[in-house]
Amino acid sequence: MEWENTPESSNIEDRRGSGGGGGGGLPIGGGTGGLGIGVIIIVFAISYFTGINPSVLLGGAQIVAGNGGNASYAPASAPRAAQPAAGADDRMTSLVRHVLGETEAVWAEILPAQKGVRYTNATLVLYDGATQSGCGGAQAAMGPFYCPLDKKVYLDMSFFRDMQTKYGGGGDFAYAYVIAHEIGHHVQDLLGILDKVETAKQGVSRTQANALSVRIELMADCLAGVWAANANKKWKLIDDGDIEKALATAQAIGDDRLQTAARGYAVPDSFTHGSSAMRQKWLTTGLQSGQVDSCNTFAR
Length: 300
Known about the structure:
Blueprint: E1 12-14, E2 27-29, H1 37-50, H2 54-58, H3 62-65, E3 72-73, H4 91-115, E4 123-126, E5 130-133, E6 136-139, E7 145-147, E8 152-155, H5 158-166, H6 172-190, H7 193-201, H8 206-235, H9 242-252, H10 255-263, H11 276-289
Parallel strand pairs: 1-4, 4-8
Antiparallel strand pairs: 2-3, 5-6, 7-8
Helix pairs in contact: 4-6, 6-8, 6-9, 7-8, 8-11, 9-11
């Protein structure tokens, strides 16, 4: 991926080395044993509003954190001494700044052109270990996510290292896909889609709510593809093999693949992000069309 000569965003909030602030003793791996009912309610609230699978938050975090099957807990109160932001000028941080800048430039053009909606920038928060978001506590084991309550994307870049070892091998375009997916949720927010879906979830079964979450996540995959298609027209970003790496990542983070890795089988009714095949399909749809309207996962 050729990103060095593309726009660079200033909408980065770098909290790395600031002492975290996860608190509360959320599990990093294992089950829910020892958690109070209040913490469990908070976890499910975060899952509901962000689309993060509660099995990742409560019992499946070992997939990302690599802690095996034994429960362990982050200290509730042990703030670290503030240190300079780690790697503030390193290559990965530069990549993140450029990819975010690319999403800003592309969406500022195509969202008004295609949907008549003005694009406003989101902030991307870099943190290590744990931090606070407008949607509650954030921990690395949760993976990247978008919080509609504060319009920010949260990313612990250790997730990129996990992608290298667990999720299809990584690569710059695969990392860009992850960021673009979360910005896709911001686009959904600006279009009013997230509010409509949250309203639709009221009074329906958990299975039906999960199905709505899947459609939201697949749309974000497609919107990431829309960004990539339009960014490639502007800057010729995509090299040979980039798309294959992104598709490999989409396959590796499908609910069926993650659930099978965690417990040996998959439960489709509990999917919140979509199967590997579905994630690949919708990313490809966006890449091929470059059009927001091609991403209507609720009509197919």
